Amino acid sequence: MTTTSEGRLTNKIALVTGGASGIGRACALRYAEEGADVVIADRDAVRGAEAVAEIQRTSNRRALFVEVDVASEDSIEAMAASAVREFGRIDTVLAAAGISYAAYVSGSPRTDDAPATSRHLLHTRLSDWQRVLDVNLTGVMLTDRVCARHMVEQGIAGTIVNVASSAARLALPGAADYCVSKAGVAMLTHVLAMELIDHNIRVNGIGPGFIETPMTQAMRDNPEGHAAIIARTPMGRVGTPREMANAALYLACDESSYTTGHTLYPNGGMFVG
């Protein structure tokens, strides 16, 4: 079935990192529904091609897959160049690529069964710490910076939406690298918004709570893990990728035209204020 666009991103060019699965994929599909042509950037070429096909089938919009390693500046540069070469410009960016721990592979369960205390900061390998920050924080910075340079060069009043996490504001024992990287994304969003305001480029973020994605699958499948999720979430349920996509869409389109430097936390009431 082909979806009729409501037009909030009509004829915009959207670039989505981490667009092959999870929140990134949901956002790419939602943006296409609203009239955008979409560049899916991800490491997973198989699922990336599936996302492109789904966009073309359901929204009748143009879509392109580009393989990218967000921890590599050269790869990010090539990604943006491919988008501009194919579509002429970049109007809106969603930086969603991320990992929950150093060896994370999307869709694969965590294989180590070591006690949680072994993941505490006292025992974290520096290489593991660095890997998480390279992808989650530096990868977002590079994505934002490279794409913003194209926007500035072409005089585009664009939008950038960064995917942080509610872990940016919640201390999770055993996940210091993840929490710190996402807190960095939130602050990066605020600072970059101020730096780009004179170029009419708005920069905002979302900080999801527990969402039905491959990243949370193992925890949700475990009765104790699921109970912990519900205990932390006053609404008593996990969120959906579609709900996150709706939040990102608001920040990407003109409905949020007076909003910049803000991180929205759609998390079922985990914290307020």
Q: Tell how many strands the DSSP assignment holds.
A: 7
Order of H and E elements: EHEHEHEHEHEHHHE
**Numbering strands along the chain, what is their spatial order in the largest sheet?**
3-2-1-4-5-6-7
The CATH superfamily label reads NAD(P)-binding Rossmann-like Domain
Structure, described:
The protein is of the alpha/beta class. It has a single domain, classed as Rossmann fold (3-Layer(aba) Sandwich). The chain is built from 8 helices and 7 strands. A 7-stranded parallel β-sheet has the order 3-2-1-4-5-6-7, sandwiched between helices. α1 runs parallel beside α2, α1 packs across α8 and α3 packs parallel to α4. It is globular and about 50 Å long. The N terminus is likely disordered.
Would you spell out the secondary-structure blueprint of this structure?
Blueprint: E1 13-17, H1 22-33, E2 37-42, H2 45-58, E3 63-67, H3 73-87, E4 92-95, H4 126-154, E5 159-163, H5 176-196, E6 202-206, H6 217-221, H7 223-232, H8 241-252, E7 263-264
Parallel strand pairs: 1-2, 1-4, 2-3, 4-5, 5-6, 6-7
Helix pairs in contact: 1-2, 1-8, 3-4, 4-5
List keywords for this structure.
Rossmann fold; globular; about 270 residues; about 45% helix; alpha/beta; 8 helices
Short description:
The protein is α/β, with parallel strands linked by helices. The protein is built from eight helices and seven strands. It has a seven-stranded parallel sheet, with helices on both faces.
